[in-house]
Write a structure and sequence with these properties.
With about 350 residues, the chain is α+β, with helices and mostly antiparallel strands. Helix content is about 25%, strand content about 25%. A hairpin with a 5-residue loop joins strand 15 and strand 16. Helix 1 packs antiparallel against helix 6 and helix 6 runs antiparallel to helix 7. The chain is globular and about 70 Å long.
């Protein structure tokens, strides 16, 4: 599905193995800033909260009066989300569900919210965003420490039958997951986490903020010096020929001003498996219909939407769709702005974007 799996470090801040953020990079305006009318005590502070979490890192910037440090509340939210959504935590709600335990949705509100959101995107994306793809993700060895050999066609066909959208149902007030199936919420969990953090700030009457988890991000208002937040989008640079199993160095493709919107990017150029025998790279974007990682000239899909849950789900779906279908979907889905980076027949980077991707002055 998506890069950066939920990782055990989500429940152990400051320790464990974690990855750097995936995509969007914020430029400037990130130092601790003060806004004051004179030498007296500043009336507005810019707060910075950041650290390792969910197998990656998070960064939160917001302006608020003195005494508005919400670090403890943020830490509590991350722990609550880990307890329900982490595929790496064997005691999380989603892990228990995937083991076949009988769970009541009402007792697992965060997992219920994520699964409900995922179900809402199934039809609009033509089935390309499907959290029931979990068995295929496992089969292809993504997010595993020792993934093992690549599967053959017989194994793919066998497991693909376990990934239908009807594999999860509610019977007598309990989730029922059919045998052999597994829910993978990694394609939406970080976007949902961003939205939960934004809701916390909204509830605290904070209106100017930037919230990012693993590169998925959402902004509101402006920076402390009155500018729009500036967001960088990676260029999907391919691995070097002499190091085909390692991602290339990061290079920026585009800088985007953003306020009151969310941005999520999905791509296959950083999270992939390399087969030294066939010398082929397999991206993490698995097509639920074919059962195979999607082979496409589309290298990355960046989505701007009103919330990060939606942006995250659609970025995943567009990568699975491939270039031509991604363009069609981007122009038909309301409230979506899209920026695609792909290779033309000559192997040169080209881009395509919807008319409203970047706000005009």
């Amino acid at each position: 599905m998506r890069p950066n799996p939920y990782h055990p470090s989500a429940s152990n801040f400051g320790s464990g193995r974690f990855f750097m953020p995936r995509w969007g990079v914020v430029f400037g305006f990130l130092g601790l800033a003060l806004a004051s009318c004179g030498p007296e005590e500043p009336k507005i502070l810019e707060y910075q909260l950041e650290g390792p979490v969910q197998g990656t890192t998070y960064s939160i910037r917001y302006t608020a009066p003195p005494g508005s440090d919400f670090q403890s509340s943020v830490d509590s939210l991350f722990l609550a989300i880990d307890a329900e959504l982490s595929a790496w935590n064997p005691n999380s709600s989603v892990s228990r569900l995937n083991r076949g335990e009988s769970l009541k949705p009402s007792e697992h509100p965060l997992l219920k919210a994520v699964l409900d959101s995922a179900a809402a995107y199934l039809k609009p994306t033509g089935g390309r965003f499907n959290p029931a793809v979990g068995p295929l993700v496992r089969l292809w060895g993504f997010y595993q420490k020792n993934p093992g050999a690549f599967p053959d066609s017989a194994a793919v066909d066998s497991v693909r039958a376990l990934c239908g959208p009807d594999r999860l149902s509610v019977v007598d007030g309990h989730w029922v997951l059919k045998s052999g199936s597994a829910m993978d919420v990694n394609g939406i969990a970080q976007g949902y986490t961003v939205d939960v953090l934004c809701a916390l700030l909204d509830q605290r009457d904070v209106h100017d903020y930037f919230v990012e988890v693993g590169g998925e991000l959402r902004t509101s208002g402006q920076t402390v010096d009155g500018r729009l937040w500036s967001i960088g989008i990676d260029r999907p640079v391919q691995p070097e020929p002499e190091r085909p199993d390692q991602p290339a160095e990061r290079v920026l493709q585009r800088i985007l001003p953003l306020s009151g919107k969310a941005l999520a990017t999905s791509g296959n150029y950083r999270n992939f498996r390399y087969d030294p025998v066939s010398r082929k790279r397999y991206g993490h974007s698995i097509d639920p219909e074919s059962g195979y990682p999607k082979e496409t000239v589309l290298l990355s899909a960046s989505v701007v939407a009103g919330n990060c849950t939606k942006a995250d789900a659609w970025a995943t779906a567009l990568m699975v769709a491939g270039l031509d279908e991604a363009k069609r979907l981007a122009l038909t889905e309301p409230g979506l702005e899209v920026y695609l980076i792909y290779l033309n027949p000559k192997g040169v980077f080209e881009t395509w974007e919807t008319p409203g991707f970047e706000p005009k002055e």
